[in-house]
Amino acid sequence: MKVKGTHYRSLWWNHDDDVLEIIDQRSLPYEFVTRQVKTMREFEDSIVEMRVRGAPLIGATAAYGMALAMKLDPSDANMDAAWASLNATRPTAINLRWALNRCRASLLPLNPSDRAAAALELAHAIADEDVEINRRIGVNGLKLIQHIASQKPDGEPVRLLTHCNAGWLATVDWGTATSPMYQAHDAGIPLHVWVDETRPRNQGALTSWELGSHGVPHTYITDNAGGHLMQHGQVDMVIVGTDRTTRRGDVCNKIGTYLKALAAHDNGVPFYVALPSPTIDWTVEEGVAEIPIEDRSPRETTHIQGTREDGSLDVVKVTPEGTAGGNPAFDVTPNRLVTGLITERGICDATPEGLAAMFPDLSKSET
After folding, report:
1. Any idea which residues are catalytic in this one (predicted)?
2. Is residue 325 domain-shared with residue 255, that is, in the same domain?
3. CA separation (Å) from 160 to 13, 122, 234, 365?
4. Beta pairing, strands 158-162 & 237-240
């Protein structure tokens, strides 16, 4: 997507310096900062500290990490060590393990002398595939928005609600939940997007920054406002992303997603999940019981970053002294609350049958 008229991916290969570059998302939406990732420790820290974030982007970053590992030492032992260290960075998003497993399976049969070049080419391919997957999710999700728009009076916008940031910053480009929004906006369909703040890291601010940069009308709201808006007919559809989806269609996404799904179900609002196929964990059936939920630092809940009136960045404490902070980063929405899954191949029911029919090749090979 574009930043001040210039097209950017969330990561890209700097061929002049032979190094990966990323947008450092810790600085957004206040400053647009790019960084080079030069060491294995920097790859690990970039994921852990959320310089890069979002399941698809984490997977692509890990693939480039494996490429660096093979450049430094292409042995089997170092491949296993790199796989383990990168896989340990964050536990919930399945794309991380998916990308690492794909890299290892492709590289192990090769002569060690051939692994560095092959690993870099594979990382490029994974990044490019992510862009196309998300573009196609947008094409398929656009049909839902077009249908809603066709039932509205001329000029009245389609009102969408999204949670967290499932935008191009969370992928290599386009985004998952935002891809249909961008394509609808570019097609001339009037839109208005309700953007949840998504405490504690306020990733909704990233979505607002993205949408504003692209010219999509939106409003930044508190996490608890969505149910009220749905009760008053102000939401036509909810679209969220996912960090891991089970083979029966349970969806693990940023904390607070489950509450949005409950409110949507209670008010008859369609609740859709934008689902890239690498985010499906075919080895898991029941999400609440089986998906590991990341617990992040309590400081993320007790402190908040923002800008002062003079534009300088600062961090302030928002809780009383002695108050403990709890910070589960994700929750699971059961498939019964999901209207449908918007995938790169089409839209399917959030059921074992729906997913198996949409991805017969993957469901049979990975279970």
Report:
1. 243 (proton donor)
2. yes
3. 34, 36, 9, 36
4. parallel
Query: For residue 90, what are the CA distances in angstroms to 11, 45, 168, 329?
Result: 19, 11, 20, 11
Beta pairing class for 280-281 and 347-348: unpaired
User: Which CA distances in Å does 292 have to 146, 243, 244, 287?
Assistant: 37, 11, 10, 9
Beta bridge partners of 12: 21
Q: Are both 136 and 35 inside the same structural domain? A: no
In tens digits, the chain (367 residues) has pLDDT values of 788 888 999 999 999 999 999 999 999 999 999 999 999 999 999 999 999 999 999 999 999 999 999 999 999 999 999 999 999 999 988 999 999 999 999 999 999 999 999 999 999 999 999 999 999 999 999 999 999 999 999 889 999 999 999 999 999 999 999 999 999 999 999 999 999 999 999 999 999 999 999 999 999 999 999 999 999 999 999 999 999 999 999 999 999 999 999 999 999 999 999 999 999 999 999 999 999 999 999 999 999 988 888 888 899 999 999 999 999 999 999 999 999 999 999 999 999 999 999 999 998 766 4
Alpha-carbon span 149 to 140, nearest angstrom = 15
List residues bridging with 295 in a β-sheet: 328
**What SS3 state is found at 271?**
strand
DSSP SS3 for 176: coil
Is residue 334 located within the same domain as residue 286?
yes
State pTM to two decimals: 0.94
Active-site residue set: 243
Q: DSSP alpha helices (H): ranges in 20-173?
A: 40-48, 55-72, 76-87, 94-107, 112-150
The total number of residues written for the chain in this structure: 367
Residue 60: give the domain boundaries: 2-129
Please tell me the distance from the alpha carbon of residue 230 to that of residue 151, in angstroms, as a whole number: 18
Q: Is the dihedral of CA 164, 244, 331, 293 positive or negative?
A: negative
Task: Give the annotated binding-site residues for substrate.
Answer: 53-55, 90, 203, 253-254
Domain end point (choices 108, 129, 150): 129
Q: Which of 129, 154, 170 is the last residue of a domain?
A: 129
